[in-house]
TrEMBL record:
Name recorded for this polypeptide: Prepilin leader peptidase/N-methyltransferase
Function field: Plays an essential role in type IV pili and type II pseudopili formation by proteolytically removing the leader sequence from substrate proteins and subsequently monomethylating the alpha-amino group of the newly exposed N-terminal phenylalanine.
Transferase among keywords: yes
Domain Prepilin peptidase A24 N-terminal positions: 21-142
MF-aspect GO terms: aspartic-type endopeptidase activity; methyltransferase activity
Taxonomic source organism: Shewanella piezotolerans (strain WP3 / JCM 13877)
Transmembrane segments: 12-34, 124-142, 148-166, 175-193, 199-220, 232-265, 277-300
Cellular component terms per the entry's GO annotation: plasma membrane
C-alpha cells in the first residue's frame, strides 16, 4: 500500500484519472440508490401501517388484507439495491453489461433502449459524470490521503441525498445519520477538526435550523423545511466543525433564494410551493469542505 501511495504521489494525474473512472462506476450505482431507496422506504412504511392495522384494527385488516398487502408500486415484490437487475422500464429487457458502462454505455445506446428504443434519461450519464468529476477534483486537491478517502465517501452520499431530495423532497435517515456518526468518529483522532469542534458543530448544525423551523412555524403556521435539512447541516458540523456552519447556511440560503426566485420568474414554480433545500446545503457544504477557510479569510479581510 505504501508503494502504491508513493506511485500516486509521483504521478498525481494517474491518481486523478483512476479516481475519475472509479467514481464514475460508483456513480452508476448511485443512480440505482437514488431510484430504488425511496421505493424501498415506502414499502417499509406500508408494512409498518399493515402491522398497525393487523394489531389494532383486525376486523378491518382481515376484510382488506389483499389490498393492504399489495405492493404500492409497479415494481416486483423482491426489490432492493441489487435485485432485480437493471432493465428497460418500458419493455423490461435486461440491460447488457457493456451498456451499463458509465457514460460510455449511454452514448453507445444513443440515449435509447437497445430493444424498444424507449428514451433513457440523460440524468444517468450526468450523475456519473458529475460524480467522477467531483472525486477527480478531490484526488487532485487532497492527493492519496485519508482525507481524500473520507471526503469521497461523503461526496458519494451527498450525490445520493441530492438526487433523492430533488425527486421526493426527502433526505433519508438511512444516509444522514450514519454520516453524522461517521464524522464524529473520524474526528476522534482529529481527521478534519478537533473532537470538541465536531461535537459542537453537530449540535449547532441541527439546533440552528431546528430553531428557524419552529420560529417560522409559530409565526406562519407552516413548515418551512424538513427535519432532514437539520440533520444534513449537523453532518457538516460533525465533519468540519462549527466554524463552517455560518458559511454553509449563507451559501445555501443565497443559492436557494436565487434558484427559487428564478423559477418563479420563469413560471416554473408557483409562489408558495415548496422546493428541496437539501441540494443547496449539500453543495454549500462541499464547497466549504474545499474552500471554507479561504472564503472565510477573504471575507474577514474585506471587512
Amino acid at each position: 500500500m505504501t508503494e502504491l501511495i508513493t506511485v500516486f504521489n509521483q504521478n498525481l494525474w494517474l491518481f486523478v484519472s483512476l479516481s475519475f473512472v472509479f467514481a464514475a462506476v460508483i456513480g452508476s450505482f448511485l443512480n440505482v440508490v437514488v431510484h430504488r431507496l425511496p421505493v424501498m422506504m415506502k414499502r417499509d412504511w406500508q408494512q409498518e401501517c399493515n402491522h398497525y392495522l393487523a394489531e389494532y384494527k383486525k376486523p378491518v385488516f382481515e376484510q382488506n388484507e389483499k389490498a393492504l398487502t399489495a405492493p404500492i408500486d409497479e415494481f416486483p415484490e423482491k426489490y432492493n439495491l441489487v435485485v432485480p437487475g437493471s432493465a428497460c422500464p418500458k419493455c423490461k429487457t435486461n440491460i447488457k453489461p457493456i451498456h451499463n458502462l458509465p457514460i460510455i454505455g449511454w452514448l453507445m445506446l444513443r440515449g435509447k433502449c437497445a430493444a424498444c428504443k424507449n428514451p433513457i434519461s440523460a440524468r444517468y450519464p450526468i450523475v456519473e459524470l458529475i460524480t467522477g468529476a467531483l472525486v477527480a477534483f478531490l484526488a487532485w486537491h487532497f492527493g492519496p490521503t485519508a482525507e481524500f478517502v473520507f471526503s469521497t465517501i461523503l461526496t458519494f452520499a451527498l450525490v445520493v441525498l441530492t438526487g433523492i431530495d430533488l425527486d421526493e423532497m426527502l433526505l433519508p435517515d438511512q444516509i444522514t445519520l450514519p454520516l453524522l456518526w461517521l464524522g464524529l468518529i473520524l474526528n476522534l483522532s482529529g481527521t478534519f477538526v478537533s473532537m470538541s469542534d465536531a461535537i459542537v458543530g453537530a449540535a449547532a448544525g441541527y439546533l440552528s435550523l431546528w430553531s428557524v423551523f419552529w420560529a417560522f412555524k409559530l409565526l406562519t403556521g407552516k413548515e418551512g423545511m424538513g427535519y432532514g435539512d437539520f440533520k444534513l447541516l449537523a453532518v457538516f458540523g460533525a465533519w468540519f466543525g462549527w466554524q463552517v456552519l455560518p458559511l454553509v447556511i449563507l451559501l445555501s440560503s443565497l443559492v436557494g433564494a436565487i434558484v427559487g426566485i428564478s423559477l418563479i420568474a420563469f413560471k416554473k414554480l408557483n409562489q408558495g410551493n415548496p422546493i428541496p433545500f437539501g441540494p443547496y446545503i449539500a453543495a454549500a457544504g462541499w464547497i466549504a469542505m474545499i474552500w471554507g477557510e479561504s472564503i472565510t479569510q477573504w471575507y474577514i479581510s474585506t471587512l
